Amino acid sequence: MLFEEERKRRIVHYVEKHTRGSVQELSQEMGVSESTVRRDLKELEEGKLLKRTHGGAVSLQSVNFEAVFQDKEDRFLEEKQRIARKAVEMIQEGDAILLDGGTTTLHIARELRSFSNIKVITNSIMALNELKDCRTIEVSITGGMLRPDTMAFVGPMTERSLEMVRVDKAFLGTNGLDLREGITTPNMLEAATKRKMIAVAKQSILLTDHSKIGQVSFCKVADLTEMDHCIIDSGAPDGFIRWLTDMEINFTIV
């Protein structure tokens, strides 16, 4: 039987070596119960040594990591709601808007029922489900290949359908936002879909909570200077805000 500190060191080593580990795998590897592993993972995440996921953990060093939709939905909930409400303030009656897949854009969908004359195009199954019975909004879904992790359509069919439209505003989420590397996401098809959304919109608006700042994922979407506006919560570091100001990027802090 391993002592607690040695067990935690081995858990971190296992996750870093394999980039991820399930509770079941770690339980078998360490010879302890799954409830013990869950407790260890909670304490290790609090110590910023790994990141818990639905059913396990991943290494903080993995640029390929992408949390599933359910894991992200409740993280920074209040910040996402504030960001969504500010985004909705930018929408006017008569607009055609694009909603990217993601948890923050889902909160936008939940705020749209007060409108009576807008068009919504989305690649998000979750946003579609939120708006499917709203008779005052014209809703279109892109189609394409569904990614279960994000509950969003991506790929060539998605991009082809986006080529058929022009919208007033596109609201996009991100997995990572870095001063040097820009806007990034773990999946190549997701990145290409986001780039197409930027291309067909008169105005592209990035939505991000402060946890994404300084994070870099596998695939680059765009430089932040390519976006027309950025909405971010008040947890953003002062240095990042100064950089936005110096680069003359339009942004709103909520």
Describe the fold and architecture.
By secondary structure, the protein is an alpha/beta fold. Helix content is 39%, strand content 24%. The longest helix is centred in the N-terminal third of the chain and has 15 residues. It is globular and about 65 Å long. The mean pLDDT is 89.
Detail the topology: elements first, then pairings:
Elements: H1 4-18, E1 20-22, H2 23-30, H3 34-46, E2 51-53, E3 56-58, H4 69-73, H5 77-89, E4 96-99, H6 103-110, E5 118-122, H7 125-131, E6 137-141, E7 145-147, E8 152-154, H8 156-163, E9 167-172, E10 176-178, E11 182-185, H9 188-199, E12 201-208, E13 219-222, E14 229-232, H10 238-246, E15 251-253
Parallel strand pairs: 4-5, 4-9, 5-6, 9-12, 12-14, 14-15
Antiparallel strand pairs: 1-3, 2-3, 7-8, 10-11, 11-13
Helix pairs in contact: 2-3, 5-6, 6-7, 8-9
Summarize the structure.
With 254 residues, the chain is an alpha/beta fold. The protein has helices at 4-18, 23-30, 34-46, 69-73, 77-89, 103-110, 125-131, 156-163, 188-199, 238-246, and strands at 20-22, 51-53, 56-58, 96-99, 118-122, 137-141, 145-147, 152-154, 167-172, 176-178, 182-185, 201-208, 219-222, 229-232, 251-253.
